[in-house]
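TL;DR need structure tokens for one chain.
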Amino acid sequence: EEIIIGTRVANRRGNHLKDLIGPISNTLAIRSFIEKETNFDTYLKNLNKIYKEGLEHQSLPFDLLLNELFGENYKHTNNSLFDVFYEYDDIKNAHLVEDNLEVNFDKIDNSFEKYDLSMFLKSDGTSILGKLKFNSDSFSFNRINSLLEHFYGLIENLIDKNNNKLSSIGVLSKKEEIVLIDDFNSSFRAYPAYSN
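>> reply
TL;DR here they are.
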């Protein structure tokens, strides 16, 4: 299966930009393929290689690329190379430790978003904080909450099973597994007492 996500890259290549003040960034589309028989560590190594190869083309303005692919009317349609935008800011090279995994759900800002779904993760050296922005025309608040539960389940399962095949790593959290297996699958019914 193919996955394409967008991410922001710092774009200060070239001497003509060195005297400018302020951030200069560009959007980069990262395309990868999921092979179900690959383990997560191998997939991450491949993704890192693809990302580094993509950085070689970071000076091509993303709007120019979209214009070439979709024509000048791309701004007035929903044509894009991706619907999910991802940004990670590693301030102090924090490492996610198995015993210290904590996910907090904050109120989600459902104001206008350029992409259907944008995830921002930021490491402060001791924890990873996240924000999810979404297009409310595409997703309901309940759907986003469900997506976050699955994201938490995926992270939880990756910590436990990162050497397993991708096809064997589930997205359900332990709480969701209990609900599905025990609650929904329960076939126990009380029978009325027999009377003459």
